[in-house]
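Title: Prediction job returns without error message
Component: structure pipeline
Severity: low
Priority: P3
Assignee: unassigned

Description:
Job completed but the reporter wants confirmation the result is attached to the right record. Sequence as submitted:
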Amino acid sequence: MHPAHSAWTEAPSATRPLELLERSLAYARPVLAAVPGHDAASPTPCPDWDLADLLVHMVDGFTAFIQGATGVVSPLGPVGLPREPALLAGHLLDLGCGVLSEWTSADQRACLLGLTPLPADVVLEVAALEVAVHGWDVSRACAPDRDLPTELAAALLPVAVRRISTVDRAGRFGPVVAVVRRRDPAALLLAQVGRRPS
């Protein structure tokens, strides 16, 4: 593993949204490290995406999060990515280091997504939520023992409630799942983002 990947587990920042992103990346890192050796067609909790599709989507997201720290997110994501899980996971580990590095040194207060300005705190919270939830998606295919940490899930639950709108659910998240006799934060978070807790 690249030595820089240890930066994902460094002490959290005093800035809460950035701390949340750091914690999400720290959760995702060992999950991504478990990807090599798994088949590209392995199923994931995302009905329309196999493992390779999910990892490609994550590369697109991580790239956008890095761009967000510079102030402008390009509408065009990476193209021509391989469908080899080991290569994609390695790329994501490197990108994760870039996400932290760029946001740690960022000094702007907003970024442009198309023509829409977004406060940096919003971008960081959305990034933390996406990284953690998709990390869990990958874990179901590659590292089923890597459940979402309780404290991380508890911190992300209000973010999910705050940041996922009705419009977002069409195509990006499924409807909220009913949770029966489950009160642990991870189950509640996963239900909020349309996942069925395992």
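Comment from assignee: result matches the submitted record. The CA atoms of residues 68 and 123 lie 7 Å apart.
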